[in-house]
Target: B30.2/SPRY domain-containing protein
Amino acid sequence: MYIQNYCGVKILLKSVQESLSHLTEAVEEKQKTFQKQAEQLIRKLEKEISELTKSELKELLDGEMKRFLSKAKLIRMQQFAVDVTLDPDTAHPNLVLSPDGKRVHCGGVKRNLPDNPERFDTAANVLGRQSFSSGRVYFEAEVREKTAWDVGVVYGSIGRKGSISSSPGGGYWAVGLRSGDTIKAASLNLDVKTPLNKVGVYVDYEVGSIIFHKVDSAEEIHRYSDCSFTEKLYPFFSPGVYHGGLNAKPLIISQSHRHPTP
Model:
């Protein structure tokens, strides 16, 4: 009896060992399969990460190169900086000019001024004293914390009285801010992020181009190309209307520093 029981236990143990062996082999096989799949997934992810990094690096380098080139172009334009002062004889009666002719804001109250032919009587505009009919010119205007403004150049012959057409066809080449967040060029809405603190204006009279820049970032805002100028151009500014004090900040003609020619 004892021998029979012993043999039975031995057979049972052998069966259990064989089952465990098969189970271990199955687990090991599944582990190998899982490990292989995991390795394949890791390699795929590493490749995707590598490609993504290259793409991001290229995008970063392209962005840095564009910013560098934009800054270099702006510095080249700033070599043609001119001193601009405001002409009080052209200023709308609501505009208040600083004694040095470098600042202007809309005071909200119409002053009693001579209605001379040069003066704007409906639009809150003012021109610069300086004019030019050749060469290249650059100037800057600070428009920080304003809700409306216009900056550009105009013909000296533009209309000053009544309704005026502020477009290239009417002798105006300008950009401006409307409603605190929309940059416009004539009737065109521009894709430019606000706020915009300082505007650079570059004119090449012979080439017939006017280029506007966001000075802080050297980003080009807008350009008018293939213009055929036929008379003198004057710097043009509008600080916008008072708007209950919301747009009371002055428009300031900035001092543009000339950079040394490379």
Remarks:
- The first strand starts at residue 95 and ends at 97.
- The two ends are 111 Å apart (CA to CA).
- The longest helix spans residues 2-78.
